[in-house]
Each structure stands twice: as structure tokens, then as C-alpha cells.
Amino acid sequence: MRIEEHPILSFKRGKAVKFHYNDEEVLAFEGETIAAALHAAGIKTLSHSHEKNRPRGLYCAIGNCSSCIMEVNGEPNVRICVEMVHEGMVVKTQKGKGDIL
Amino acid sequence: MMPVELLVIGGGPAGLCAAIQAAEMGSRVMIVDRNNALGGQLVKQTHMFFGSEKQYASKRGFDIAKLLLDKIANLSNIEVLEATTVLGVYEDGVVTLEKNGSYLKVKPKAMVVATGASEKALAFPNNDLPGIYGAGAVQTLMNEYGVKPGNSVLMVGAGNIGLIVSYQLMQAGVKVEAIVEGGPQIGGYLVHASKVRRMGVPIYTQHTVKAAYGKEVLEGVTLCRLDDQWQQIPGTEFDVKADVVCISVGLTPLSELLWQAGCQMKYVNSLGGFVPYRDDNLQTSVKGIFVAGDVSGVEEASSAMVEGYLAGLSAASYLGYKIYNMNELKSDLLLQLDSLRHGPVGDRIRKGIAELRIINEAAASKEA
User: Fold this and answer.
1) For the segment B243-258, what is each residue's pLDDT rounded down to a tens digit?
2) Is B30 left (phi over 0), alpha (psi -120 to 50) or beta?
3) Domains in chain A, start-ordered, CATH in brackets?
4) Which helix (H) or strand (E) holds B352?
5) Which of A11, B204, B311, B338 could pair with B282 as two cysteines, CB 3.0-4.6 Å apart?
6) Which of the residues A2, A5, A9, A65 would you substitute to probe the B interface, choosing the one with the greatest number of B C-beta atoms within 10 Å?
7) Complete domains list, chain B, with CATH
8) Is the confidence at residue B6, as pLDDT, over 70?
């Protein structure tokens, strides 16, 4: 769901890259966040609440609320709304609170 | 430990203007921003600003950002640290930063805290479903990354942000089903309200979200009417199908660093939450710590810029820098702020700020 035409803005998209989201491969553009790329691919559920396992998506998109944390290249609790995509990145739905050791 | 003369925390409209003003007076400035690029939320604003020419009225937000960033680039005494997060402000005046995984310590002689605000949430059943976003998040997705948030949107809140983002959604080709507003009146400017109404979007005042529903993601919401006491009226429920709900019920200052620094704070509803006491120069109760923009009370970008210039002027003058027309400049900035704070909203803001005023210079006596 990318905007192709806009009356005021023109979007200069970077180089096309691919990254891994769980078992899928997602197309993205350099210079955009993981959250923007996932959203463009129609993926809205990003994390789950700890106690009731309720699905969670974006809320603030600027790194304030931590509603979007995922595991990126093995590192848990990454706020993907402010983390840029890179070619070959491995993004996974995080289980639990994440283990940093 | 890095010695720094003036540290500006936050590179949005307030921080940029503070840095420009202080640097033009000769001060050496370091701007720290946790984002990858300066500009704050200005870069996402596609609408033309109000106010007067001095606040870049009739220019679009992203063009104003460009203008300010050009000025910054031409001032060699400004150092910019992007993608850098301030972690803490300590009692001895040391500020700790994180950049690319490394830990830095700086000791500024003065600082301007311009950290902005974050969006408030609204309580209703299932308000955590994916598809329910802050209005700013939708703006970021659309205007910064060119990604649609969904196909059909219900906007909650008819303040300026709610109205403007509704219009922006339609510009991006997204359907706006309706705008709901809990209060009896539209909070934002009528210019914006008429614009979205003309495009066929109903605005329901005295209505709220009773509940959201959806399995994995949002599928729709149940709305209902509110009485004069803001209580839900049973039997008035109706359904709106939407895959996005945009929450635009106000902002709250991101004031954590001010708390850490020991600034005297007070809860002021009309300013969005806890805000610092300050004097006429925008100096807080901690000597050498100045504030500007939404962190000192949620307003508009226009007043954030004017406050930025004022805080920059005050901080530079605190550091011993002078400019020949300083008093003139200061009274002009105060006058601009006054004229921006008009109407019923402006009255509430002015009253709120009056509660926070440090009148005596000696009151700002705690050493940074």
C-alpha cells in the first residue's frame, strides 16, 4: 500500500532491497524504516502483549511507545519504527521479553 | 568528557531555532537528536502555516524545515549529532548520550531542552488492536515514507491535528469515514474543518468510540453519543467499518530529562501534562537549563519556533554573548508569542503559563 501519486509530495525511494520477515521475504527501499516496509507489505501485527498475548501494531511510529518491538538480526526489543531496513536483514516476531544473553 | 558550550536537545522547530539564534550571537552549539535527520515533525507537515510572516506563515511545514536546516548548515559554530539519544541529565550537569552503540559524556555550560511531546492514547475496549494509531504515526507513514496506513480511517479528535491529518489522508488517496470529537465543538480552526467537510467527511461532535473490534487487526468501531457530562448515552450506538483508527486527542510533553535535571515541575492540564516552571527568558528553576517548544507546554509549531529563538537568545546571553538589539529582539519575540496565543485556546495556554512563571531572577538559583 504505497502512495504512488501525491498532490504535494514526491517520494524519492532508495535502492530496492529485500529482507526476511519470519518465513517471508519482503521488498523494501533503502532509507525507510522496517515498520514502513512491513506496513507497505500489509503486515500490521508486529508484537504481542506479554500476559494475554494480544496482537500489537504501531502506535507512535517515532520511537516513543515500544508497541512495535521485534527481534532484528538476533537482537530483541528493537523499535522497528525507527530502525532502518538493510539488505538481508532478519526480522522476527519476538516471543516473550527477549533474551539478550 | 566532552566540553560543550550550549547543548540543544531536540532538533525540531524549537531546537533548530534556538540553535540558530544562539549560534548567530556567537555561541558554540551542539544539537543532539535521536532521529536520523533533523527537523522533528516539521518535515511531515504538508499544510501551509498560519501566524505572521515572522513564523514563516503560508509556507508548508517541510519547506520551513528546509529553510531552517539551510541556516544550520551555514553556521560553522553548530555541530550536529544525529541518531543520538540523550540518556540522562545528571546533578553535576553531565549529560550522557548514546550514538551507534557508543556511550558519550558531555558537560555543557548551558542547555536548551526542546524534546517535544508524545501523543496521548484514549481508553476504550480493544484500543490496542493493530490498526489503531496515533495521528502522528499515520503522518509519519504517509508523508515521510509514502505508505498508506490502510484503506478507510476513522479519526478521533477534531483538533487541528485531527483535521489536518484527515485532509492529508485524503490527499494520499485514503478514505476518511468520519471524524469524532468528544467535545461539543470542533477544537481546530474552522478553515481546516470546512475543508474536510466540503470533501464529504462527517464530523460528529459529542461522540466517542465505545469499543473497537477485530480479530487479529482492526475491522471496525462502535461509536456512541456523549451527554453534556461526557457520559455515553445508551442506545445511541452505531457502527463504522474502518481498518484504521487515528487517535488525535492531544499531546503530552516529553519532560523526562527536565525531571532528571531537577527542574521544578507542575501539572497544567491546558499545557498537556507536567511542565517546567520558567522565567520570562524561558529559563527553568535550574540555572542554565532553558526550555522551548512542546516540552514546555503543548502548542503549535509556530510558537515552538518563536520560543526556540527566545530560548536561544536567553541561553547565549546567559553564556555572555551579546547582540546590539537584544532587548528589542526579545520584546518582539514576546509580542509574537502573545499574538499567536489568541482565542479561547490561546487564553487557556496563557493562563497555564502564568501558573508556571518564575518572576524573580533569583528564583532560578539552583546551579546546573
Assistant:
1) 999 999 999 999 999 9
2) beta
3) 16-92 (3.10.20.440)
4) helix B343-354
5) B311
6) A9
7) 2-118+251-363 (3.50.50.60), 121-247 (3.50.50.60)
8) yes
